[in-house]
Design brief:
The chain is of the alpha/beta class and about 700 residues long. Among the domains are: about 1-170, Rossmann fold (3-Layer(aba) Sandwich), CATH 3.40.50; about 185-260, no CATH class. It has 31 helices and eleven strands. Helix 5 runs antiparallel to helix 11 (about 240-260), helix 21 (about 455-480) packs across helix 29 (about 650-660) and helix 22 crosses helix 27. The radius of gyration is 30 Å and the shape is elongated.
Length: about 700
C-alpha cells in the first residue's frame, strides 16, 4: 500500500539557496544527524509524510554548484546523485534560487539529465521581486520538463503544494519522458552507448559521468577495465567534454531565460543590500563596525545574563540550605547536597549565557552578516596562511570546536584546511564561558568604564580576542613548517540581507541549552559524583585518624567546635583520594599561582572544560558545608599562610591557561578523524599545552 511505502528523496541545491531552511520547515525538529557511509561528512535525515500518506526519508545533501565536485562534501552529494553510494535516491527535490536563476539552472539542468524524478522548488521569490525579476513559472516548468513550485520556507508558504507534487512525482517511479536538456550524445558520441552496455539503466548524462569519474566509484575491477577500454577506444577527453558541456548548457539556459524571465535593466539603481555592503565592507568602516558588533555581543552576554544567573544561583543556594537543614546526617544526604545539587547548580547557572551567545550568533548568521565577516577577514587570513573560508569555522568555534573543525571540509586547499583545524580550538568555545564567568566575577569589579561599559564585559572580550590573536600568530608560524604547496582561491557568495527568523533564533537557543544540559551536564554530573567519592574517602585509615584527632580536640575545646569542624572538613579533604592526587601535581602548577584544588580541576577539565566549575562546586561543598554560594566559597578560599587563593594574578593566569589549553577529548577525537592520523592531534595537544603553561606563567609573573 502507498501509505506503507517509504522512499528516499534527496534535497539538493546551490549553497545559500535556502536548502537548510526548507529542510527545517519540512521536518521541524524531527531530524537525525549521522555520517554518510565511509566518510565524515554530516548527514541530516528525517522521515516526512507526503500529501497522499506516503512516507519518505528526506536526505539533506551538501550544497554544490554543479556535478563536477571539488570538495569532500561535494563528492558526497555527487556520488549519491550518481547512484555510486549505499544510499539509493528515488526522487530529487531541487532548490533553485529565483534571484540567481541563470547560475542555478546549470546545476538544475545537470540534475534533470540524470533522468530521476525531479521537483524544482523555486525559492527567494521575494528577493527576485525586489530585484524586479519576473518569472513565468508555468513556462519554466514546460521548458525544463519537470514540475516547478514557488515556495517560501521562511514563511511556510506553499509547502503543502510542494508535498502534493512530490507525492505525484515519486509515484511515477521514473521521470516523465522528456528529452535531455542538451544532447549529451553529441558530446561523448558512441562511448555513451558503450558504457550503457556495461552498466545498463544509466541515462546518457550519467553514462558520460561514469566515463569521467569511474575511478572514484565503487565498481569492480572488470567494470573499471571495461570503461577504461571504452575511453581509449573512443579517445574520450574528459576536460574537453566538460568545457563543451557547460558552454552548451549556458546556451540553452540563455534561451530558457529569454522566453520565461523578465529581468530589469542592470543600470537601474542598486538594491538596499548593495548600498549597505558599501558601508559594511568598507576597507576602514567595515572593520570598525565588525569590532563594534563583536564588542556589543560580549557586553550583552554579561549584561543580559546577569539577572537570570543571579536567580538560578540563589535558587540552588536556597535549595541546598533547605536540604541541609531538613535531611538527617548521612552519607546519602551528603551525596545529594554536595554531589548532586552542587554539580547541578554548576551546570544550570550558565544556561542563560549559553542561550544568549548562541542566539546572538544565530542572528548574525540569519541576517547575512556572518558571510561578510569572512569577506572582510580574507586579506588578514591570507597573511597568516589561511583564507576567508577559515573564518567561518573559527567563528563557529566560539560555540564548539567539534562541528567547527568538521566544517573545514569546504576549504579546498589542504594546507589551509590543516592550519585551520590546528588553530580553531584556540578560539574560546562556550565550554570555557563558565570558567571565565566565575573567575571574572571573583577578581574583576562590576564597575562601569566611561559610565556605560562593563569592565567585566571588557575582560571577557579581551579573553576571546586573545584566542583569536594567538590563533593567527600560531598559524603564521606553522605555515612555514607545513610543506604542502597548492594554489588557493577564495570564492564566496554573499547572501542578501534578511531580517532574523525570530522563531529560528528561539528554537536554536532552546536546543543549544538542551544540548549543554544533556551532553555537558551528563559529563559534569558523572565527574561531580566521582569527585564527591574521591574527596569524601581516602586510602587506609587516614580519614578515620583525622576524625579521631578532631573528635578529641572538640571534647577538649567545646567552645571552638564550629572552627574545629571547618578544620576537620578541610583536613579530611586533603587526606582524601582527590586531595592526595592534587598534592602530587601541585609542585608542577605552583609557578602558575595554583593550589592543589585547582590542579584537580585542571585534570578533570580534560574530559570537558566546563567541568572546572562542577569540580570546584564539589570540592568546596565537601570542605565547607555552610550555605554560601560557590563564588562566596571561592572568594573566601585561603592558603595555609592565610593568603587568598584567587588573587588577581592567579585568576588571570588561570583564565589565560583555559584560553590556550587543549582540554577537550572530543576535539582531539574529531581532529584525528578529520586528518586520518594521530600525528596531528598529538602535536596539537602538545603545542597548546606548552603555549598555555608558558603564557599563564608569564601573566602570573607580571601581575603578582
Amino acid at each position: 500500500m502507498a501509505a506503507e511505502k517509504k522512499i528516499n528523496i534527496a534535497l539538493v541545491g546551490n549553497p545559500n539557496s535556502g536548502k537548510s531552511t526548507l529542510f527545517n520547515t519540512l521536518t521541524g525538529l524531527n531530524q537525525k544527524v549521522g555520517n554518510f557511509p565511509g566518510v565524515t561528512v554530516d548527514k541530516k535525515t528525517a522521515i516526512i509524510g507526503l500529501e497522499d500518506g506516503t512516507k519518505a526519508e528526506l536526505i539533506d545533501l551538501p550544497g554544490t554548484y554543479s556535478l563536477y565536485p571539488r570538495r569532500a562534501d561535494e563528492w558526497v552529494a555527487y556520488k549519491v546523485l550518481m547512484g555510486a553510494d549505499d544510499i539509493k535516491v528515488d526522487a530529487i527535490l531541487l532548490l533553485v534560487d529565483a534571484s540567481n536563476l541563470k547560475r542555478n539552472l546549470l546545476f538544475c539542468s545537470q540534475i534533470i539529465d540524470l533522468k530521476v524524478p525531479v521537483v524544482v522548488a523555486l525559492t527567494m521569490n521575494d528577493i527576485a521581486a525586489k530585484k524586479g525579476i519576473k518569472i513565468d513559472v508555468d513556462g519554466l516548468a514546460i521548458a525544463l520538463g519537470v514540475p516547478v513550485v514557488e515556495v517560501s520556507p521562511r514563511k511556510n508558504k506553499d509547502i503543502h503544494q510542494l508535498k502534493k507534487i512530490l507525492a505525484s512525482s515519486v509515484q511515477q517511479l521514473r521521470r516523465s519522458s522528456t528529452g535531455d536538456f542538451i544532447d549529451n550524445k553529441l558530446l561523448a558520441g558512441e562511448s555513451i552507448e558503450a558504457v550503457q552496455k556495461v552498466l545498463p539503466g544509466l541515462s546518457d548524462y550519467a553514462a558520460m559521468h561514469y566515463l569521467i569519474n569511474h575511478e572514484h566509484f565503487p565498481l569492480d575491477g572488470t567494470v573499471q577495465k571495461a570503461i577504461e577500454a571504452i575511453e581509449a577506444e573512443h579517445q574520450f577527453n574528459p576536460t574537453k567534454t566538460q568545457a563543451e558541456e557547460v558552454m552548451q548548457r549556458y546556451q540553452r539556459i540563455r534561451q530558457v531565460m529569454q522566453h520565461n524571465v523578465v529581468e530589469p535593466d542592470p543600470l537601474e539603481k542598486k538594491l538596499f543590500t548593495d548600498r549597505l555592503d558599501n558601508v559594511l565592507l568598507h576597507r576602514v568602516w567595515g572593520y570598525i563596525i565588525l569590532v563594534s558588533v563583536l564588542f556589543v555581543l560580549f557586553q550583552s552576554v554579561f549584561w543580559l545574563a546577569s539577572f537570570p544567573m543571579d536567580f538560578i544561583e540563589n535558587a540552588f543556594k536556597n535549595l541546598g540550605s533547605s536540604l541541609n537543614s531538613s535531611l538527617p546526617e548521612a552519607w546519602w544526604s551528603n551525596l545529594l547536597v554536595n554531589g548532586v545539587i552542587a554539580g547541578l547548580g554548576g551546570i544550570m547557572i550558565f544556561v542563560p549565557q549559553i542561550m544568549i551567545l548562541f542566539g546572538l550568533i544565530t542572528i548574525l548568521e540569519d541576517t547575512g552578516y556572518m558571510a561578510r565577516i569572512s569577506f572582510l577577514s580574507d586579506r588578514l587570513m591570507r597573511k597568516v596562511g589561511l583564507n576567508g573560508k577559515s573564518v567561518m569555522p573559527m567563528i563557529s568555534s566560539f560555540a564548539c570546536a567539534v562541528p567547527a573543525i568538521m566544517s573545514t571540509r569546504n576549504i579546498e586547499n589542504r594546507k589551509e584546511r590543516l592550519l585551520t583545524i590546528l588553530v580553531t580550538p584556540l578560539m574560546s568555545c562556550s565550554a570555557r564561558l563558565p570558567v571565565y564567568t566565575i573567575l571574572i566575577s571573583l577578581v574583576i569589579p562590576s564597575t562601569r568604564v566611561w559610565g556605560f561599559l562593563s569592565l567585566q564585559g571588557l575582560v571577557m572580550m579581551a579573553l576571546y580576542l586573545l584566542g583569536v590573536v594567538m590563533a593567527l600568530v600560531v598559524s603564521y608560524v606553522m605555515k612555514w613548517f607545513i610543506n604542502i604547496k597548492e594554489k588557493s582561491f577564495f570564492i564566496l557568495e554573499l547572501p542578501i540581507y534578511r531580517s532574523p527568523r525570530w522563531k529560528n533564533v528561539g528554537i536554536t537557543m532552546v536546543e543549544k541549552a538542551k544540548i549543554f544540559v544533556r551532553d555537558a551536564g551528563r559529563v559534569i554530573m558523572v565527574i561531580s559524583l566521582l569527585l564527591w567519592f574521591l574527596s569524601s574517602y581516602g586510602p587506609g585509615k587516614r580519614m578515620q585518624q583525622v576524625e579521631e584527632k578532631y573528635a578529641l580536640l572538640m571534647q577538649q575545646q567545646p567552645v571552638a567546635k564550629d572552627s574545629l569542624q571547618k578544620q576537620l572538613s578541610s583536613e579530611k579533604l586533603q587526606h582524601s583520594y582527590a586531595g592526595l592526587l592534587g598534592k602530587v601535581i601541585e609542585p608542577a602548577i605552583r609557578p602558575l599561582g595554583y593550589d592543589w584544588k585547582i590542579g584537580i580541576a585542571l585534570i578533570t577539565s580534560f574530559a570537558a572544560r566546563e567541568v572546572f566549575v562542577g569540580t570546584m562546586a564539589t570540592l568546596y561543598s565537601v570542605e565547607d558545608t555552610d550555605d554560601s554560594s560557590l563564588r562566596e566559597k571561592m572568594n573566601a578560599a585561603t592558603r595555609k599562610d592565610g593568603s587568598k587563593v584567587y588573587t588577581l594574578a592567579a585568576s588571570l593566569s588561570l583564565m589565560v591557561f583555559y584560553v590556550l589549553a587543549m582540554q577537550c577529548m572530543s576535539t582531539l577525537a574529531v581532529v584525528k578523524r578529520e586528518t586520518k592520523s594521530w600525528k596531528w592531534p598529538v602535536f596539537q595537544f602538545t603545542y597548546m599545552t606548552i603555549l598555555a603553561y608558558s603564557m599563564a606563567w608569564l601573566v602570573y609573573t607580571v601581575f603578582k
